[in-house]
Amino acid sequence: MDLNYSCAVSTGRNRKRATFRQQGSVTRSQSETTIHCSPPHTTVTNLIWRFDHSQIILTKTDSQYTVSEEWKQHVKDVSESGSLTLQHFSSDQEGTYTCELADAVETKITNILVEINEGNSSNVEAIVGVVIAAIVVLASLVTLLVLWKNKKCCFS
After folding, report:
1. Which domain covers residue 111, as residue numbers?
2. 75 Cβ contact partners less than 8 Å away, ≥ 6 residues apart
């Protein structure tokens, strides 16, 4: 089941929007798998792929991709739209993959559970993932708002 959450924060001068999407699980059945981050026609400027919410797989700024040392053997390709193709997949790479797309106005975060064996993820795992990601998005927005208010207060 796909779940979508969106939050917008507006100030007198700025508007920021964050969208969180919990995508259904992807079951890997071949030696490689592709995880989609956004629709194929999307132009990606800033991208971060994470594994289990913390370990950075790769980053992209403008047109430069940087793959972390731990993931170089597994990352086969990254498409123009940000889709990640992994190879040499094992149970160590089973888990939650997070794609974060950002520009000056909007941040889109997508969580995808990747499993090796056939089967569905439990609802509890999905709910926990949604709650954690929602907390991260809200904390980021609150931090941005506080920083903006402090800047207005102190630099006016």
Report:
1. 3-155
2. 57, 58, 67, 84, 85, 86, 87
